[in-house]
Amino acid sequence: MDELLEILKGIHDDVDYETEEHLIDEAILDSLDIVDLITQIGDTFGVTITAKDILPENFNSAKAMYALISRLEEE
Protein backbone atom coordinates (compact mmCIF):
# COMPACT_ATOMS: atom_id res chain seq x y z
CA MET A 1 0.00 0.00 0.00
CA ASP A 2 2.87 2.38 0.77
CA GLU A 3 4.13 2.16 -2.81
CA LEU A 4 0.67 3.01 -4.12
CA LEU A 5 0.39 5.98 -1.77
CA GLU A 6 3.75 7.25 -3.02
CA ILE A 7 2.54 7.02 -6.63
CA LEU A 8 -0.64 8.89 -5.73
CA LYS A 9 1.26 11.58 -3.81
CA GLY A 10 3.36 12.11 -6.95
CA ILE A 11 0.21 12.92 -8.90
CA HIS A 12 -1.50 15.20 -6.33
CA ASP A 13 0.42 15.75 -3.11
CA ASP A 14 -2.36 17.80 -1.52
CA VAL A 15 -4.86 14.92 -1.18
CA ASP A 16 -5.25 12.67 1.86
CA TYR A 17 -5.38 9.38 -0.04
CA GLU A 18 -5.71 7.33 3.13
CA THR A 19 -9.17 8.76 3.85
CA GLU A 20 -10.48 10.11 0.52
CA GLU A 21 -13.07 7.80 -1.04
CA HIS A 22 -14.37 9.93 -3.93
CA LEU A 23 -11.32 10.55 -6.10
CA ILE A 24 -13.27 10.03 -9.33
CA ASP A 25 -16.74 11.14 -8.18
CA GLU A 26 -15.39 14.50 -7.02
CA ALA A 27 -13.04 14.89 -10.02
CA ILE A 28 -9.92 14.89 -7.86
CA LEU A 29 -8.35 12.55 -10.42
CA ASP A 30 -9.00 13.21 -14.10
CA SER A 31 -8.54 10.98 -17.13
CA LEU A 32 -4.89 11.95 -17.60
CA ASP A 33 -4.20 11.13 -13.95
CA ILE A 34 -5.80 7.70 -14.45
CA VAL A 35 -3.64 7.00 -17.51
CA ASP A 36 -0.56 7.99 -15.50
CA LEU A 37 -1.70 5.81 -12.58
CA ILE A 38 -2.29 2.79 -14.80
CA THR A 39 1.22 3.08 -16.22
CA GLN A 40 2.90 3.57 -12.84
CA ILE A 41 0.89 0.80 -11.17
CA GLY A 42 1.79 -1.57 -14.00
CA ASP A 43 5.48 -0.71 -13.73
CA THR A 44 5.60 -0.86 -9.93
CA PHE A 45 3.43 -3.89 -9.26
CA GLY A 46 3.92 -5.85 -12.49
CA VAL A 47 0.20 -6.03 -13.27
CA THR A 48 -1.77 -5.14 -16.37
CA ILE A 49 -4.88 -3.04 -15.93
CA THR A 50 -7.19 -3.68 -18.87
CA ALA A 51 -10.09 -1.61 -20.18
CA LYS A 52 -12.57 -3.76 -18.24
CA ASP A 53 -10.80 -2.76 -15.01
CA ILE A 54 -11.01 0.98 -15.68
CA LEU A 55 -14.16 1.63 -13.69
CA PRO A 56 -14.79 4.50 -11.27
CA GLU A 57 -15.25 2.10 -8.35
CA ASN A 58 -11.72 0.75 -8.90
CA PHE A 59 -10.17 4.23 -8.71
CA ASN A 60 -12.35 6.14 -6.21
CA SER A 61 -9.97 5.45 -3.32
CA ALA A 62 -6.49 4.16 -2.61
CA LYS A 63 -8.10 1.15 -0.89
CA ALA A 64 -10.08 0.32 -4.03
CA MET A 65 -6.97 0.65 -6.19
CA TYR A 66 -5.00 -1.58 -3.84
CA ALA A 67 -7.79 -4.17 -3.93
CA LEU A 68 -7.64 -4.08 -7.74
CA ILE A 69 -3.85 -4.50 -7.68
CA SER A 70 -4.13 -7.42 -5.24
CA ARG A 71 -6.75 -9.12 -7.40
CA LEU A 72 -4.64 -8.67 -10.54
CA GLU A 73 -1.54 -10.01 -8.78
CA GLU A 74 -3.45 -13.19 -7.92
CA GLU A 75 -4.61 -13.77 -11.51
Radius of gyration: 11 Å
Question: Rough shape?
Answer: globular
Tally of individual domains: 1
Uncertain regions: pLDDT < 50 for 5+ in a row?
none
The percentage helix is 55-70%
H/E element string?
A: HHHH
- Biggest β-sheet strands, sense, barrel: none
Determine the strand fraction and express it as a percent band.
under 5%
- CATH topology: the name is Non-ribosomal Peptide Synthetase Peptidyl Carrier Protein, Chain A
Q: Can you count the beta strands?
A: 0
What is the count of helical runs? 4
State the fourth-level CATH superfamily: ACP-like
Distance between the termini: 19 Å
CATH class: Mainly Alpha
Task: Name the structural class.
Answer: mainly alpha
* Known CATH architecture: Orthogonal Bundle
Report the mean per-residue pLDDT as an integer.
97
Task: Kindly summarize this structure in a few lines.
By secondary structure, this protein is mainly α.
Keywords:
75 residues, mainly alpha, Non-ribosomal Peptide Synthetase Peptidyl Carrier Protein, Chain A, 4 helices, globular
Task: Compile the SSE list and pairings.
Elements: H1 2-11, H2 31-45, H3 56-59, H4 62-74
Helix pairs in contact: 1-2
